[in-house]
Amino acid sequence: MIYELRIYYVVPGRMEELLNRFRDHTLHLFQKHDLKVANFWVDMDASNDRLYYVFEHRDLAAREKNFQAFLEDPDWLALQERTERNGKLYERIDEIYMRTAPLRGFQPNAAMARAQ
Known about the structure:
Largest sheet: 4 strands, antiparallel
Structural class: alpha+beta
Radius of gyration: 15 Å
Order of helices and strands: EHEEHHEH
Distance between the termini: 18 Å
C-alpha cells in the first residue's frame, strides 16, 4: 500500500467552492475510478487556505492507471470547466508519496483511528 498526500494551495476566498466541488461531485468520480481517500483536512489557521487529503493506492501502477482515468473522464472535464469559469480554485497542488514506516509492532492510536 502506498499513500499520496495532496496539498492544495487554495485561491483566497475559494475554499468553500473547492470543498463543495469535492463533496458534491469529485468524491463520486474518485469512487468511480477506484481512488480511495483516507480523509480530508484543512489548516487550523484558515488564513493559510490549504486543503489536505490522502489517497490510499495499492501501488504506483494502480495510482497512475486510476488517476489518469479520472483526469480523462468526460464528467470530470465538464465539472472542471464549469467550476473554474472564473479561474482555478487552487494555485498549485503538491503531491507527496509515502509508504508505511517499518515500525514493527506499532498500532495506530485508537483515538486517531476513531478520528478518521
